């Protein structure tokens, strides 16, 4: 109820959280879908929505820096400056975008490769082998780059440096951390996700 309209890809299509979404511009328009077919999908998409239509965006700490100062050559971003934006802190203050360590909604864990427990060992070994061949320092990275793509963030985010192991047996709640899990859980009560409901159902089983 706090926002009169917005774009939160994956929300119910007729909800106010899809009203600012633009879709793909094609046929079908795929408006508000939780994929790159929605123009405002992802962190960069959220920033673009802020620039073109919105007042507030929920993004990660590096998004503004990655898309300002000429780093993003797209028409909507090429003239943006870091000083065009500021952070809104939970205590009511406003802060410079580089003060994210002290001013943030929650500390978000890095992205993870998630697999079924019985396949974890095989997938971990596969990822390690591929990184040795196609990672930044890989022996065959002239043939293929694991962390670069012509289409932005195709397999992994293009700013990825390497993959690191997570302690075996770590649950998703432990990985996310108490603060972030609490924040996202509270958001889910406002805008329930069918995917999360299914995951919770399966976890309960």
Automatic annotation (TrEMBL):
Pfam family, one: Transferrin
SUPFAM superfamilies cross-referenced by the UniProt entry: Periplasmic binding protein-like II
Record flagged with keyword Transport: yes
Sequence ranges assigned to domain Transferrin-like in this UniProt record: 1-189
Molecular function terms from GO: metal ion binding
Subcellular localization(s) per the UniProt record: Secreted
Protein keywords: Ion transport, Iron, Iron transport, Metal-binding, Repeat, Secreted, Transport
One cellular component term from this protein's GO annotations in UniProt: plasma membrane
The keyword Cell wall biogenesis/degradation belongs to this UniProt entry's keyword annotation: no
Main location: secreted
Gene Ontology BP annotations: antibacterial humoral response; iron ion transport
Protein name: Transferrin-like domain-containing protein
Organism: Bambusicola thoracicus
